Amino acid sequence: MISKAEKLLKAHQLRKTETRLDVLELFLHKKTALAQRDIEEELGEVDRITLYRTLRSFENKGLIHRAIDGSEKLRFALCKHECNPDEGHFDEHAHFHCYECKQTMCLDQIHTPAVKVPTGYKIQSTHLVLKGICENCST
Ligand SMILES: [Zn+2]
Ligand SMILES: [Zn+2]
Ligand SMILES: [Zn+2]
Residue 130 Cα, ligand 3 centroid: separation in angstroms? Predict the structure, then answer.
């Protein structure tokens, strides 16, 4: 039987390796965005260079995107949209950072607003970062 992770790798033109499968499984099971450090902690023995490259190739192929949360920590989250290696990313949603659990998550239902900029300016990316207390921490 082919796992969801294997299918995803194939759909995004990535060869199957053990590290790629492990990392992808982790993203599939976590509801929050993950920094490289978090993944190292979860997976235990993993080569840092290999992991770094895995994250970069996942990002390039449209499997994961940067969950910009205004902190200096670079976090990634699984793409839920039709991101693909040819057209790139379509993750135009807000990211929420919780002050309580210090986690960052995608709020897919909140779309990044279209903003009007003065003549001469050209927007290439927009990030909507929301901070506060998340669902888990407020109950
Ligand atoms: Zn994406
Ligand atoms: Zn929280
Ligand atoms: Zn996201």
Answer: 12
Q: What whole-number distance in Å separates Cα of residue 127 and Cα of residue 139?
A: 27
Which residue bears the tokens 């207390």? 133
- Measure the CA–CA gap between 45 and 62, rounded to whole angstroms: 26
**3-class SS at 70?**
coil
- The ligand minimizing its distance to the Cα of 112 is 3
- Global pTM reads 0.91
Mean pLDDT of 15-19: 95
Cα of 89 to ligand 1 centre, how many Å?
Answer: 4
> Which domains, ranges and CATH numbers included, belong to the chain?
4-138 (1.10.10.10)
Task: Find the 31 Cα to ligand 1 centroid distance in Å.
Answer: 15
